[in-house]
């Protein structure tokens, strides 16, 4: 489809019957997007490019230097050309201007008699608008027809063949495996010529390439070559719509593949629970064309709370795979206890596995943010294990990490088991001992005081310890005045002893505050505490 007028086309219009090309004939194939009437000398800020300028020369016709400056500005703005009305202001175009325009291949058109600029602009604009309308109509028809074909298309070849039928150009498609598809097919010796052209800097008028992206990951490149004509704006628009259809086709294939992989979850659950041998794990990885990794870990993904929207697990698996595979992780998915469980096999050096993991997590969380910058998911990573038949240890530690995150680190989007340190110690101690009596031995006076007076001594104690005894910083974080803080510290000294900030005692108290918070989140502890206080 011819979607733009050239200067050659315009010269055939009725209003240009008495017009003459006086310079820049080599540039007459330039396209015209719009027509402007200009009678001022400073115009660089007024143009966008590809305009045909109409002028009587009233502002520059009697000054050759002003005339040259005017033409230079048009060239700088990439105007299509200049059409001047011969008359009192410009009886003749100076030879200096003609030579300059010829040198730059900038078309100068001279009307030999008076013309109506209104009629010219109305005529050309009506043609341009009509062409735009036709282009939009044809693009809409093309898109609708292509979308219908997507229901039955099974290969990228059919989509690109449909594009070829509309642009009649050589198409080469390179997929993510670097395989090349030629449409239409060409002999082997011609293929080599095209491949050489792929690797060289081609002219945008006769060749064009555009990548195919699915969820921000490139899955291929489409190349177009047209030796007999220039690539038009309409060709670009058709290609854009074709790439959208191609991306939808690829996404559908990825979606089906991810769904198939999720069906393997039963075997994966057995692996996570320690029910698979080294041999069975090796066979599974070989069936899935995966290499034996240097180690592995488990990553848990769960929606933040009950108010968060339900997880689209199929979409999330696509996103996780896209984020982590290029960082050296092979991933497998299953769902356990309303949590998406990700088995991550490391295929690179073990030294930087945690750094690569954090990079992938950051990218994943950024893509899961809402307009306010809040995320709807939590991520918890278990311990790193070198033997794949010990993956259950990573799974159990990931579950423990998720529990700690929900109880003590509710504002954190991601936690790694190996970074929890003191929280791991609390969790371990709680599994083997009842810590309630130990906590109450140190904190009972403060807890009872807060319950009786509806006070905030325990919160003050926590912040005061975290600020290393800095009264100014503590007051700022609690949003209270210094005098109120001094009163609370005096009360803490009365309840805990004046030596509660001495190193050894302070360390134990700070640890007990963390233990109390951990226990305080469980129903069993709250019931036990209630019974203790009632006694």
UniProtKB/TrEMBL annotation:
Pfam families (UniProt xref): HTH_30, PucR
All copies of domain Purine catabolism PurC-like, residue ranges: 9-127
InterPro entries according to UniProt: CdaR-like_regulators, PucR_C-HTH_dom, PucR_C-HTH_sf, PucR_dom
Gene3D superfamilies attached to this UniProt entry: PucR C-terminal helix-turn-helix domain (1.10.10.2840)
Domain PucR C-terminal helix-turn-helix: 457-512
Protein name, entry field: Purine catabolism regulatory protein
Gene this chain is encoded by: pucR
């Amino acid at each position: 489809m011819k979607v733009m007028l050239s200067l050659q086309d315009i010269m055939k219009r009725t209003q240009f019957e008495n017009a003459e090309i006086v310079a820049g004939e080599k540039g007459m194939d330039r396209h015209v997007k719009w027509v402007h009437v200009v009678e001022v000398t400073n115009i660089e800020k007024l143009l966008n490019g590809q305009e045909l300028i109409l002028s009587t020369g009233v502002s520059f016709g009697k000054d050759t230097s002003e005339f040259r400056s005017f033409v230079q500005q048009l060239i700088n703005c990439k105007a299509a050309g200049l059409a001047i009305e011969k008359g009192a202001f410009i009886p003749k175009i100076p030879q200096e201007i003609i030579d300059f325009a010829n040198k730059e291949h900038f078309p100068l058109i001279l009307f030999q008699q008076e013309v109506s600029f209104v009629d010219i602009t109305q005529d050309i604009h009506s043609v341009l608008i009509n062409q735009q309308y036709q282009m939009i109509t044809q693009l809409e028809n093309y898109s609708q027809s292509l979308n219908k074909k997507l229901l039955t298309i099974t290969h990228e070849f059919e989509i690109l063949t449909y594009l070829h039928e509309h642009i009649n150009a050589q198409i080469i498609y390179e997929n993510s495996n670097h395989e090349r598809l030629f449409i239409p097919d060409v002999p082997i010796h011609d293929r080599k010529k095209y491949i050489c052209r792929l690797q060289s800097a081609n002219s945008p008028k006769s060749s064009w390439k555009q990548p195919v992206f699915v969820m921000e990951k490139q899955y291929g490149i489409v190349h177009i070559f047209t030796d007999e004509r220039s690539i038009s704006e309409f060709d670009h628009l058709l290609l854009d719509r074709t790439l959208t259809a191609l991306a939808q086709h690829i996404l559908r294939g990825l979606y089906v593949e991810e769904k198939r992989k999720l069906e393997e979850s039963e075997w994966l659950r057995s692996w996570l629970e320690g029910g698979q041998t080294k041999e069975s794990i090796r066979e599974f990885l070989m069936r899935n064309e995966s290499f034996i990794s240097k180690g592995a870990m488990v990553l848990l993904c769960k929606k933040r709370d009950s108010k968060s929207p339900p997880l689209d697990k199929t979409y999330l698996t696509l996103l996780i795979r896209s984020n982590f595979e290029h960082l050296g992780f092979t991933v497998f998915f299953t769902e356990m206890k309303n949590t998406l469980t990700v088995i991550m096999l490391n295929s690179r050096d073990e030294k930087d596995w945690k750094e690569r993991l954090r990079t992938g997590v950051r990218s994943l969380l950024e893509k899961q943010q809402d307009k306010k910058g809040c995320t709807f998911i939590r991520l918890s990573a278990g311990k790193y294990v070198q033997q794949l038949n010990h993956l259950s240890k990573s799974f159990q530690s990931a579950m423990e990490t998720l529990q700690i995150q929900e109880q003590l680190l509710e504002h954190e989007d991601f936690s790694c088991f190996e970074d929890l340190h003191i929280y791991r110690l609390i969790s371990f101690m709680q599994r083997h001992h009842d810590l309630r009596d130990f906590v109450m031995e140190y904190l009972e006076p403060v807890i009872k005081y807060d319950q009786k007076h509806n006070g905030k001594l325990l919160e003050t104690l926590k912040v005061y310890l975290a600020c290393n005894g800095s009264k100014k910083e503590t007051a700022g974080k609690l949003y209270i005045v210094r005098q109120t803080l001094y009163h609370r510290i005096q009360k803490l000294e009365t309840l805990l002893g004046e030596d509660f900030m001495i190193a050894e005692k302070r360390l134990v108290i700070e640890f007990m505050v963390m233990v109390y918070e951990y226990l305080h989140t469980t129903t069993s502890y709250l019931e036990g505490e209630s019974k203790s206080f009632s006694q």
